[in-house]
Design goal:
With 353 residues, the protein is an alpha/beta fold. It is 30% helix and 23% strand. It has 11 helices and 12 strands. The strands form 2 sheets. It has a 7-stranded parallel sheet with strand order 3-2-4-1-5-6-7, with helices on both faces. A 5-stranded antiparallel sheet has the order 8-12-9-10-11. It starts with a strand and ends with a helix.
Length: 353
C-alpha cells in the first residue's frame, strides 16, 4: 500500500495571515504538487482568487477546492469527507494537501475527521499550523487568559468578557503543532518575547513558535511536522467544549455543533473604480475604525491600472498589492466581516462615498 498523503491544517483567527502564508508555500514548493482546500468565510471567494493569482506551478486551478457552505468543522460529512475522497481518487494525486480553515473553524473536529474510514488509511495530518496576528494579540484583542476572565466573571455576574473570539483562539492554540507569530515585525523585541512566553505557556509541551513577517517561513518546516495529529487527539483537546460528540470513535454520522457562528456576519460592498488608492485606503481605515469591523478583504478597480488591487485589512491596518488582470467587470468588491449587528447601510455608504 502506498504511503499516506500528508495534510496540513492551517488555522487562525480572521486576518491572521493564513492566505499569505499559503501563498508563500505555493511559490516555494520545491517541486511538490499541492492541493488546496479553502474554507472561505464570506460571500466573495477572495482567498481562492488570491491563491489562483499567485501563478505557482505547484498548485493549478484544478488543485484548488473552495468549501463555502459553512464552517468546515460543522460540514465534515457534507463537504469535507467527499472533497477528500475526490482528491484521493484522482490519477494525479497530490504530494501534499493544505487545508485553510475559516477564521471561525475549530481545528479539533477537523483533525478527528481524518479517522473516518473513508480516508483514514490514505491520508494523515502532518501538522496543525496556527497563525497568530502577533500585533493584534499583543494589543489584547482576544481574551485568551481564561483564568483571569473567569476570575472577573466570578467577581461580577454582569461582567462578561468571555467572547466567542477568545474561545476560538484558545482552542486553535491548544491544537497547534506549530504556532506562527505573523506580523512579528510590528512588535518590539520585548513585546515579542513576552507574547511568545504567554502563548508557549498555553500551548502543548514541545510546540514550536516561529516569528514571521508576511508568512515567510521555510517550506520544509511548515510542511514537515510529521505529527500524525489524528492519532494524538487526547493531548490536543478543546479547551471549550463547543462540539457535542460521542466518546466513541466517529461512525460517520454528522454531529451538531455550536460555537458562536451567529456572533459574526459578513456582506459584500460593490462600487465602481476608484481614482486614488492612497485616499481610498484611508477611507477604508476610517470606516473600519468607525464601525469596529474585524476584517475587510477584496479586490479594487483603480482607474488607469490594468491589474486589480488586492486589499486586505485587519482592524485599521491595510495591506494591498496589484496581482492580475480582472476576469470580468472592472468593479471594486469588498467583503466586510464583523460581529453581529454591523450597520450595513452606513458601512456601504462610507465605502461607496
Amino acid at each position: 500500500m502506498s504511503a499516506k498523503i500528508p495534510a496540513t491544517i492551517v488555522t487562525g483567527f480572521l486576518g491572521a495571515g493564513k492566505t499569505t502564508l499559503i501563498r508563500h508555500l505555493l511559490q516555494n514548493a520545491n517541486g511538490r504538487k499541492i492541493a488546496l482546500i479553502i474554507n472561505e468565510f464570506g460571500d466573495l471567494g477572495v482567498d481562492g482568487d488570491i491563491l489562483r493569482g499567485c501563478g505557482a506551478e505547484a498548485c493549478t486551478e484544478d488543485d484548488i477546492v473552495e468549501l463555502s457552505n459553512g464552517c468546515i468543522c460543522c460540514t465534515v460529512a457534507e463537504d469535507f469527507i467527499p472533497t477528500m475522497e475526490a482528491l484521493l481518487a484522482r490519477d494525479n494525486r497530490p504530494d501534499h494537501i493544505v487545508i485553510e480553515t475559516s477564521g471561525l473553524a475549530l481545528p479539533q473536529p477537523l483533525v478527528r475527521a481524518f479517522n473516518w474510514p473513508a480516508i483514514s488509511t490514505r491520508v494523515t495530518v502532518d501538522g496543525v499550523i496556527t497563525v497568530v496576528d502577533a500585533r493584534a494579540v499583543r494589543d489584547g484583542r482576544f481574551a485568551h487568559d481564561v483564568a483571569a476572565v473567569d476570575a472577573q466573571r466570578a467577581s461580577d455576574e454582569n461582567l462578561d468578557h468571555e467572547t466567542p473570539l477568545s474561545e476560538l483562539f484558545d482552542d486553535q492554540i491548544a491544537c497547534a503543532d506549530l504556532i506562527v507569530l505573523n506580523k512579528s515585525d510590528l512588535l518590539t523585541a520585548g513585546e515579542l518575547t513576552e507574547l511568545s512566553a504567554s502563548l508557549a505557556a498555553e500551548a502543548r509541551d514541545g510546540v514550536r513558535l516561529l516569528n514571521s513577517s508576511m508568512g515567510v517561513l521555510p517550506v520544509d518546516v511548515v510542511l514537515g511536522q510529521k505529527a500524525g495529529a489524528e492519532a494524538d487527539l487526547e493531548s490536543r483537546h478543546e479547551v471549550h467544549h463547543h462540539h457535542h460528540h460521542d466518546d466513541d470513535e466517529d461512525d460517520g454520522d454528522d454531529h451538531h455543533h455550536d460555537h458562536g457562528h451567529d456572533e459574526f456576519e459578513s456582506f459584500v460592498v460593490t462600487r465602481p473604480e476608484i481614482t486614488d488608492p492612497k485616499a481610498f485606503a484611508e477611507q477604508v481605515a476610517a470606516t473600519i475604525r468607525d464601525h469596529d469591523i474585524l476584517r475587510l478583504k477584496g479586490f479594487v478597480a483603480v482607474a488607469g491600472k490594468p491589474l486589480r488591487l488586492t486589499l486586505q485589512a485587519v482592524g485599521p491596518r491595510i495591506d494591498s498589492y496589484y496581482d492580475q488582470p480582472f476576469d470580468g467587470p472592472r468593479l471594486t468588491r469588498l467583503v466586510v466581516i464583523g460581529e453581529a449587528g454591523l450597520d450595513r447601510a452606513a458601512i456601504t455608504a462610507a465605502l461607496a462615498a
